[in-house]
Amino acid sequence: MKIIETKIEGLFILEPQRFADDRGWFMESFNQQNFEHALHERGLNIPKFVQDNHSCSKKGVLRGLHYQLDPCAQGKLVRVVQGRAWDVAVDLRQDSATYGQWVGVELSATNHRQFWIPEGFAHGFLALEDDTHFLYKTTNYYSKAHERSLLWCDETLNIDWLSHGVDVDDLIISDKDRMAPSWA
């Protein structure tokens, strides 16, 4: 497994090793021991995953930016197993040097990348193809009472959603996400 550091400490991209031949391919999509080793090497906390989620979205569906408050904050290990998505994490850790900054990465069934998003981040994604299947491993259970959102198009955050082949007029956004509060 290859680890790609991002500009935000604790937030990184995983590239599993894939073995291909004339029959197809095989990859180990998750290995707890290797994941823990990668975190331990970086002095980061080792999470325990408790829930897996799976969503399917049409091209243009934008979900987020979502997070949960303590004591129900969630870390997420996310990947796309069919289609493509532009995935974004925003640093909400007030004591962080990168507070308010974001990182985006394309996840796809072709590149097999995974994105580790620890607790303390808002998360969202834009489906870039129809029938995009997005998988999440989470470190805490969903709690409606602790769920919060940030406005996806907040001018202060200035997230680059629209340079990935989806026009603003084609976005499909829930009312909850349209009405989310701004960063301010």
Automatic annotation (TrEMBL):
Reactions the enzyme catalyzes: dTDP-4-dehydro-6-deoxy-alpha-D-glucose = dTDP-4-dehydro-beta-L-rhamnose
BP GO terms, sorted: dTDP-rhamnose biosynthetic process; polysaccharide biosynthetic process
Pfam families, A to Z: dTDP_sugar_isom
Residues marked Participates in a stacking interaction with the thymidine ring of dTDP-4-oxo-6-deoxyglucose (site): 142
Pathway(s) where this gene product acts: Carbohydrate biosynthesis; dTDP-L-rhamnose biosynthesis
SUPFAM superfamilies in the record: RmlC-like cupins
Protein name, entry field: dTDP-4-dehydrorhamnose 3,5-epimerase
Species of provenance: Acinetobacter marinus
Source lineage: Bacteria, Pseudomonadati, Pseudomonadota, Gammaproteobacteria, Moraxellales
